[in-house]
Amino acid sequence: MKLFKLFICFVFASLFLEAQQDGNGSFLKISGEIPKPVTIYRKDLAGMKHITRTLNVHGKEQQYTGVPVQELLTLAGVATGKQLRGANLSKYLLVKSSDGYKVIFSLVELDSSFTDRQAFLADSMEGKPLPDSVGPFRLVVPGEKKPVRSAYKVTEFVLGSYKE
Ligand SMILES: Nc1nc2c(c(=O)[nH]1)N[C@H]1C(S)=C(S)[C@@H](COP(=O)(O)O)O[C@H]1N2
Ligand SMILES: [Mo]
């Protein structure tokens, strides 16, 4: 019986370690001015449509693959497409990272009905999970002259709006 318990402990410990190593336990929180907060796990992302784009960081080019931010916002019930008019034009997305880095986008600049250069949440680079230095998720903003809004170590999306 003791041996059996030890075995069970071992199985759980190795499952836990494996989840840590491949980042399967990682998640993104979507909160703020939405009907109800949403948590998106790495495995949820895996089932969604991905795009691949090159990010140029000071002359160094890297291929990132991920899910358009718009798709993630749709899961949280955020306005997209034709709904983007009137009061929705002064709503924003705040992207927060675990190192305290914060960047802001208006909903319009993330929407495929307004731009062909959609920002996306990358979960892999050059076909591999992101290294710990930038992962588990990195926002990639194609087409900007400086990569300052391509925030790495992203943990949370917070929705807000301009108040008079
Ligand atoms: N979380 C987080 N993301 C960040 C930054 C940061 O300090 N923290 N720096 C930005 C800046 S100023 C640059 S130039 C790039 C650097 O990306 P690299 O680490 O791939 O070279 O990341 C951007 N994303
Ligand atoms: Mo930078």
Q: Would you kindly provide a written description of the structure presented here, covering whatever features stand out?
A:
The protein has 164 residues and is α+β, with helices and mostly antiparallel strands. Helix content is 20%, strand content 35%. It contains three helices and ten strands. A five-stranded mixed β-sheet has the order 2-1-10-5-6. Strands 3, 4, 7, 8 and 9 form a five-stranded antiparallel β-sheet that branches. The longest helix has 20 residues. It is globular, with a radius of gyration of 18 Å. The termini are far apart. 23% of the residues are buried. The ligand Nc1nc2c(c(=O)[nH]1)N[C@H]1C(S)=C(S)[C@@H](COP(=O)(O)O)O[C@H]1N2 binds next to loops.
State the gist of this model.
The protein contains three helices and ten strands; from the N terminus they run H-E-E-H-E-E-H-E-E-E-E-E-E. With 164 residues, it is an alpha+beta fold. The relative contact order is 0.20.
